[in-house]
Amino acid sequence: MEQLYVFGTGNATVTRCYNTCFAIKDEEQFFMVDAGGGNGILRILEDMDIKMEQIHHIFVTHEHTDHILGMIWMIRVIATHMKNGIYEGDLNIYCHEDLTSTIDTLCRLTVQGKFYKMIGDRIHLIPVHDGETRKILDYDVTFFDIHSTKAKQYGFTTVLKNGQKLTCAGDEPYNPECESYVAGSKWLLHEAFCLYEDRERFKPYEKHHSTVKDACELADKMGIENLILWHTEDKTIQTRKERYLQEGHSCYQGNLFVPDDGEIIDFI
């Protein structure tokens, strides 16, 4: 059974959880998306019993610190495993073409030369373009520009082995220009910065983010059967799941998920 491994669920400035990143598990291999903002990703992978040797494909959505800095640690550790002969094959890192030089520069400035030299050898920075489809594990993954108002950012859509369409809309509100990619999705991964009732406290619209109510109304209108909300604030984390579900169910008829870090969701 295919599963979604949730590594982190928080926005850029959280301290009570990790930044939003995740992976799709296909048999014993993982297609990872983003790596959060630091070496906390290493602990999370260890806690979820995922070995680096199970990760050969990573997609980086955009340049913000809470999505890209963890990649330095992933590259550092995987390069070490390659040098030590315990990582077979290559690591493929997909991102929009402007991001390849950013990742390369970050590693050149922060990673030891013997590991940095693995980039271009067994670690590949692969640029993808709007509407381009790549074969990743057993999936045809189509990347698309989410038309961010901030940094250039890509999402992706694919069809799972069970025939269900899954779409990651990035960490900004759904843009109608992306309808051709999102429409018909059985699963939608969407940000929700805070509750609608807490909008004055957290000011999501000033940061160009959604509330739970906004995201759920969108998913209901589009007929999305399964909605996963993350990239949230963490000040209400003790009651986040309960309160987010309560607000979401008031305007969304489908299956709503508000995962915590470390959760595993079955695609059924």
Low-confidence stretches: none
Specify the CATH class.
Alpha Beta
Number of domains: 1
Q: How is the CATH topology named?
A: Metallo-beta-lactamase, Chain A
Topology:
Blueprint lengths: L2 E6 L12 E6 L2 E5 L6 H8 L7 E5 L5 H19 L7 E6 H14 L2 H4 L6 E6 L4 E4 L2 E7 L8 E6 L5 E4 L10 H4 L4 E5 L7 H4 L9 H11 L3 E5 L9 H10 L5 E3 L6 E3 L2
Parallel strand pairs: 3-4, 4-5, 5-6, 10-11, 11-12, 12-13
Antiparallel strand pairs: 1-2, 1-14, 2-3, 7-8, 8-9, 9-10
What can you tell me about this protein's structure?
With 268 residues, the chain is of the alpha/beta class. The protein has a single domain (3-266), classed as Ribonuclease Z/Hydroxyacylglutathione hydrolase-like (Metallo-beta-lactamase, Chain A). It is 28% helix and 26% strand. The chain has 8 helices and 14 strands. It has helices at 40-47, 65-83, 97-110, 113-116, 179-182, 199-202, 212-222, 240-249, and strands at residues 3-8, 21-26, 29-33, 55-59, 91-96, 123-128, 133-136, 139-145, 154-159, 165-168, 187-191, 226-230, 255-257, 264-266. A hairpin with a 2-residue loop joins β7 (133-136) and β8. The radius of gyration is 18 Å and the shape is globular. The N and C termini lie close together (8 Å).
